[in-house]
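Q: Here's a chain of 124 amino acids. Please give me its 3D structure as tokens.
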Amino acid sequence: MLDFIKDAGAVTAFVVSAVTLLTIIIKPLRTRVARALRLKALLDSQLADEESRKTEARLNREALKCLLRDDIVRLYYKRLPEKKLHAYELENITAIYDTYILLGGNSFVREIYRKMSTEWQIEK
């Protein structure tokens, strides 16, 4: 019977020691895993935000390009009957055109600008 009590005490001591050891080891591991998961979630969130910003920037760029094209085309058709531009209008259209081209504008507006700047009369 004494051997049984000794064996039971040894087993109990082993179990308590094992549980204590696991507690000591598991908490730092759990903390590291939790931190890694939070970092991954943060990174995923930042990547999604970056994609959203890129999409928004692309849409803003296209909207700006449309507005610039509209300004050029509107002045073209406004002044088409007399084919004359004031010097300040040519300056404005040139600035608008340069920006439009930097944004990737098309050949339709290039042709309109070329006509206005080279073929039309410029009034001072």
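Q: Can you summarize the key feature?
A: Strands lie at 84-86, 121-123.
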